[in-house]
Write a structure and sequence with these properties.
mainly alpha; proton motive force dependent protein transmembrane transporter activity; two-stranded parallel ribbon; single chain
């Protein structure tokens, strides 16, 4: 009874090994790339949908936490509130919040699908970087969202504090909620960016020297992102937000430079072995 499935598995294994032997670089035709992209998008979409269902379930307490910084300011004597200006707006906001929660929950899935879409075009030995990419990108993305959450009260207090005395802040939900979600995503993707740089370096696309060459622009952009995403009454807030980003970029640059040095050594050794082979011929078996 079990001989047929076993024989089928053995046949598939032999076919797979033969395919890898005939195509070690994992090259794919355009049609295969489009099919691969479709499959990856479907899997990521399913993960996002399942996460969004969880978002709908926890919508009420999560929405209350999002508008809590506004309620704190209203408790201080200011007239500040979040309002809905249309009949269908509550559902629209619910959908946005649920999709955001789904995006965070399903981040291991869609981040892996993004990297796995690149993997088939890489050499076999480079595919092991996928696990390291996911292992670093997912925690950093979640950490970025958490940092955005911690910064949110400061941002709300700063903007509300710009209101002239004697006025009220009636904030529309379709303005406040997208602002908050963009703040969270900005920090999440900002912390993932160094991992992307390391990944591109590992596959030989982005040399470390190229990153160092534009380090001034990188530091300026980090400071600008911190200033825009987390405005505060002084420079201390921006400093605390910019330092983790600069530190991560520094670590990414060091990793890229070390990897470039190791790659250069391997290339030099391979070239030396090739020259020895061309000049002296193959080495005797007793010397190996």
């Amino acid at each position: 009874m079990t001989s047929a499935p076993k024989a089928a598995r053995t046949k598939r294994t032999k076919v797979t090994r033969a395919a890898r032997k005939n195509n070690p670089a994992g090259e794919m035709a355009l049609k295969d790339h489009l099919k691969e992209l479709r499959n990856r998008l479907i899997i990521a979409g399913i993960g996002l949908t399942l996460g969004a269902i969880v978002g709908f379930i926890i919508y009420q307490p999560f929405f209350s936490a999002l508008i809590d910084p506004v309620h704190r300011l209203s408790d201080e004597g200011r007239i500040v509130t979040v309002s809905f200006s249309a009949v269908g707006q509550p559902f629209d906001i619910m959908l946005q919040v649920a999709l955001f929660v789904g995006l965070v929950i399903s981040s291991p899935i869609w981040l892996y699908q993004v990297w796995a879409f690149v993997v088939p075009g890489l050499k076999k030995k480079e595919k092991r970087y996928a696990l390291g990419f996911i292992g670093a990108a997912v925690p950093l993305f979640v950490l970025g969202v958490v940092l955005g959450w911690l910064v949110l009260p400061e941002a709300v207090q700063f903007f509300v504090g710009l209101s002239p005395e004697g006025t009220a802040n009636v904030i529309s939900a379709d303005v406040y909620i997208p602002f908050v979600l963009r703040l969270f995503l900005a920090f999440g993707f900002a912390l993932v960016l160094p991992v992307v740089l390391v990944g591109l370096n590992m596959i030989g696309v982005l040399p470390g020297k190229q990153i160092i060459k534009h380090w001034r622009i990188t530091v300026f952009l980090i400071a600008l992102i911190a200033a825009l995403a987390a405005p505060g009454s002084d420079a201390i807030t921006m400093f605390y937000l910019a330092m983790p980003l600069i530190l991560l970029f520094g670590v990414a640059i060091v990793i890229c430079l070390v990897n470039d040095k190791r790659r250069a050594k391997r290339a030099a050794k391979a070239e030396q072995d090739n020259e020895e082979y061309l000049t002296t011929g193959p080495r005797p078996l007793d010397e190996l």
